[in-house]
Amino acid sequence: MKTQLTEARRGNLTEQALEVSRSERMPPAMLIKAISDGKIVIPVNKKRRGAFKAVGIGGGLRTKVNANIGSSPQRSDTKEELKKLNVAIEAGADAVMDLSIGEDIDENRVQIIESCPRPLGTVPIYQAAREAGDTADFGIKGFLNVLKRQAEDGVDFVTIHSGITRGALPLLEKRLMGVVSRGGSMLIRWMRQSGDENFLYQHYDDILSIAAEYDLTLSLGDGLRPGCIDDATDEAQLHELRVLGELAGRARDAGVQVMIEGPGHVPLGQITENVRLEKEYCKDAPFYVLGPLPTDIAAGYDHFAGAIGGAVAAAAGADFLCYLTPREHIGLPDADDVREGVVLARIAAHIGDIEKNVSGAVEKDRKMSLARSKRDWNEMAKYVIDPQRYLELIGGEEQNDICSMCGELCAVKIYGESG
Amino acid sequence: MKTQLTEARRGNLTEQALEVSRSERMPPAMLIKAISDGKIVIPVNKKRRGAFKAVGIGGGLRTKVNANIGSSPQRSDTKEELKKLNVAIEAGADAVMDLSIGEDIDENRVQIIESCPRPLGTVPIYQAAREAGDTADFGIKGFLNVLKRQAEDGVDFVTIHSGITRGALPLLEKRLMGVVSRGGSMLIRWMRQSGDENFLYQHYDDILSIAAEYDLTLSLGDGLRPGCIDDATDEAQLHELRVLGELAGRARDAGVQVMIEGPGHVPLGQITENVRLEKEYCKDAPFYVLGPLPTDIAAGYDHFAGAIGGAVAAAAGADFLCYLTPREHIGLPDADDVREGVVLARIAAHIGDIEKNVSGAVEKDRKMSLARSKRDWNEMAKYVIDPQRYLELIGGEEQNDICSMCGELCAVKIYGESG
């Protein structure tokens, strides 16, 4: 059995690790050490075929950005999802998750994987729930069946909500918003109705077996993430995080790459502590955050509010930002929403990377500022995060070395002439 | 001579202070103390007429948002600026600055003031420079003439770049971006060419006399604010900040209300320290920040990057956020840009207010989350920062108690049914 993790432990530089080492300018020995310590993961299924760029996620690397796509019961259109996929990749997403819960989930996924040149993630419990419908079939058997099928298709990483255990249930009573994770809510309903322990926790070893076989990276889901700032960093959330720490250790022991998902709705002042706790409980496993959203009242702009939290989280050490779109909490995003979401998350990630002193981050800003000091509009386009938007907005606004904002009263020009 | 400051020192509750006390739910005695200590200002010119809502800015109050409007040499259209003004007010700006440098500055301003029900600020050095043109008339005489005229029209607060002194000039040599403040660059060119000290520093007492006469609040400008993250918190910036601290003290001694302007381009990790330094050097004078921008490469999205910095600054104690628009660094914003800029700055301010524990801030999020837990789309519209955008996006996406994102797999619904 070989995974990126077991290979790193043997001191072997895989093809994908070499690729990451080059793109991130991290010496191979340092990268191998970080992978074998579980601080960096390279999600790539052994069954992956076709164009693929290996992406490393974790400490010392550039902060990565994930874009969620996928159909909903209300809207199932594979073409539309493939369009979102392409838009996300063009806008610079480092990974994509297919969260489809509509029709034809299997075919949809196969097409998405074939078209996705970056790590592709899923949340298998969604499909398991769809296939079980309202029957009693929702359980470990159906889940493992879906997991195996998805792994066979080439999915690179999967969200697994094994960290919700019965011990957390009483802690939820104090919450304002209860549970806002789709997978989390399904499992809690099942646990409450059956009286049993979470089957993803009880049968975690079976999940690990499949993951090891395909080198499927586990993204341990935060089913109890807070759904409003009042619920942030509460006992229920921390209970799950401690369990995730234990499960992360078991994954590593099984040679399985693992990262940890995080909140959610968190006031700005608690974000750094949330990152610190994850790194402590989960022994520096890569931290994959959703937002965090530092306010609950930005609906319509949650992509923006989430990126504020994302920038602060990345600066504090979060490794992987899940984007939000303007339609978060409202409806299924379209391709424009996807583009906007990816760009904002990338800006947040870059702001974090400046603080992390990630290789090459500050240099971009420096080159941009040099170009700006020369009022060289074309040169600036090389360094901005979204050249397309920059060029659209600047169309006609610049005139030689000034722009329509200040005209001849350009501060940079006046200062340049001041001697 | 009466100003909000001198009245507070006498223990008098002015009409405007009463209004602020009510809208902010701050007890009158506490507000009077804060105004007399210079920690809160209420910018309102004695000549102000017509509809006006008094706005307090400073410690313990809600973080305020300013929108810049104004013509440029390339684009002078009073109607367009009045449109931007209305859009800014409708979007929730707490104050507006008219930065016009185009044609008919005087008439433009008179119309803007008449239509502006919030504090209106200007940067008089712009008009002084336009009127002097390339002649030797640029100096204190022309400046005081403009200042007096603007005060007579009813301007409520003015940016005054008195803090740039000759001592700072050698410190600029080390900079990558030099000086990016319009007023700052004009004064430095004048200082270098004349060999004299900054006339706004030398004749500061004359400025204070006019300010006291009209109760014109001074916003001491940061002419040496960093123009790229490499230049942040450097010796030149701190030199000016120390001078501003001295000038703030002299303003208070003269009964003049004063706030301090701040950066600019600042890496995320230096923002909190920038706020702390301002509060220390300027004895808790209200801090009015432009951004800050934690990256230089977000052109096209600087309103967003600036609001990331703004949220962190507000959380650290900044009192007043100057918005940026998508066209910052690129061209003159239009009305849509203004709207977007105001909303993003308001979200940033609110995120800061949650951390500051400003009266009423957390309650909004709590009410929103309660409505969300009931999937009550109409109720949520009452609490979101931008109901117009929310209602636009939600149009048709919601169906009874679910939305097109998750359909029946709505986590909130499933959890609600889990017993």
In short:
Chain A has 419 residues and is an alpha/beta fold.
CATH architecture of the largest domain in chain A: Alpha-Beta Barrel
Mean pLDDT of chain A: 96
Radius of gyration of chain A: 22 Å
Strand content of chain A: 5-15%
The biggest sheet of chain A, with number of strands, parallel, antiparallel or mixed sense and barrel status, is:
8 strands, parallel, barrel
Tally of domains of chain A: 2
Oligomeric category: homodimer
The CATH C-level name of the largest domain in chain A is: Alpha Beta
Work out the helix count of chain A.
18
* Unreliable segments of 5+ consecutive residues of chain A: none
- At the fold tier of CATH, the topology name of the largest domain in chain A is TIM Barrel
Please characterize this protein's 3D structure.
The structure is a homodimer of 419-residue chains. The first copy, chain A, is an alpha/beta fold. Chain A folds into 2 domains: 4-356, Radical SAM ThiC family, central domain (TIM Barrel); 361-417, no CATH class. Helices cover 48% and strands 10% of the residues of chain A. Chain A is built from 18 helices and 12 strands. Chain A has helices spanning 4-9, 15-24, 28-36, 78-90, 105-115, 124-132, 140-153, 182-194, 199-202, 204-214, 235-253, 268-281, 302-316, 335-356, 361-373, 377-380, 387-394, 411-416; strands spanning 40-41, 57-58, 64-69, 95-98, 120-122, 157-160, 217-220, 258-262, 287-290, 320-322, 398-399, 402-403. In chain A, the strands form 3 sheets. In chain A, strands 3-4-5-6-7-8-9-10 form an 8-stranded parallel β-barrel, surrounded by 6 helices. In chain A, α4 packs parallel to α14 and α12 (268-281) packs across α13. Chain A is globular. The termini of chain A are far apart. The mean pLDDT of chain A is 96. Chains A and B meet through α6, α8, α13, α14 and α15 of A and α6, α8, α13, α14 and α15 of B.
